[in-house]
Amino acid sequence: MKVLYSAQDIDATVRRLAATVHDDYADAKPLCVCVLKGAVVFMTDFIRAYDDYLEIDFMDVSSYYGGTESTGDVRIDKDLDTSVKGRDVLIVEDIVDTGTTLKALKALFAHRGARSVKIVALLDKPAGRTVDVQADYVGETVPGEFLVGYGLDYKGLYRNLPYVGVLKPEVYK
Ligand SMILES: O=P(O)(O)OC[C@H]1O[C@H](OP(=O)(O)OP(=O)(O)O)[C@H](O)[C@@H]1O
Ligand code: HPA
Q1: What is the position in ligand 2's atom list of the atom closest to the CA of 142?
Q2: What are phi and psi of 90, to 5 degrees?
Q3: What is the pLDDT, as a whole number, of residue 1?
Q4: Residue of 71, 74, 147 to mutate, ligand 2, most atoms within 8 A of C-beta
Q5: What is the pLDDT of residue 68?
Q6: Which of 92, 97, 129, 170 is the most exposed place for a label (fewest CB within 10 A)?
Q7: Whole-number pLDDT of residue 171
Q8: What span, in angstroms and rounded, lies between the C-alpha atoms of 16 and 124?
Q9: Does 158 contact ligand 2 (Cβ within 6 A)?
Q10: Which residues of the chain have pLDDT under 70?
């Protein structure tokens, strides 16, 4: 495992993101939507670094059914409890890879009448993109390798690593 971002690196990035997002939501009370399960670690750190009113909710969406390849399909396994109508929705994601998940969620929340829909992603992997979507706030732009740790998994494992690392191809090839 090669460490790409240490726990210290991530902490600085999360604080920077929270401050930048806050500047843009001065008088708003965003509804932060955590995309389970990968974003849960980032979400909990992000909201504690965000020093103002916000609400949270959770949505479970899967497109990677346990492996390293996107199926291209997005399946809603758990929907929000909160209505997004008229709300400023901030989607909190661990990584944008093919873009499939975020494109589907953005369209869904717009269709449900959100006032605004923005995306904060800890990691952005442009080399993986197959659909046209861009996060509004990005922590780090990462290479086109399969990453694990800080919420990111391979077959359900490694989410609890406090750092982000590159999974060696021999582990999954
Ligand atoms: O840009 P994309 O190609 O759509 O990839 C990004 C999504 O893939 C991963 O989730 P996954 O579907 O593996 O579920 P998980 O969060 O439960 O691991 C990751 O946490 C993002 O939500
Ligand atoms: O690089 C990744 N690692 C883990 N999960 C992911 N989901 C999309 N890309 C990745």
Answers
A1: 1
A2: -115, 110
A3: 78
A4: 147
A5: 64
A6: 170
A7: 76
A8: 16
A9: no
A10: 64-73, 172-173
Residue 142: strand, helix, or coil: coil
Catalytic residue list: 97
ipTM of the complex: 0.97
147 lines ligand 2 (CB under 6 A): yes
Q: Which CATH architecture has domain 8-142?
A: 3-Layer(aba) Sandwich (3.40)
- The structural domains of the chain, with segments of one domain joined by +, span 8-142
129 alpha-carbon distance from chain centroid: 15
Q: Which two tokens stand for residue 134?
A: 């861009």
Q: Could you tell me the pTM of the whole model?
A: 0.94
How many C-beta atoms surround the C-beta of residue 116 within 10 A?
16
Specify the pLDDT at position 15.
98
Q: Ligand 2, residues 5, 63, 93, 95: which to mutate, most atoms within 8 A of Cβ?
A: 95
* pLDDT tens digits along 107-155: 999 999 999 999 999 999 999 999 999 999 999 999 999 999 999 999 9
The span from the CA of 94 to the CA of 171, in Å, is 22
> How far is the centre of ligand 2, averaged over its atoms, from the C-alpha of 85 (Å)?
30
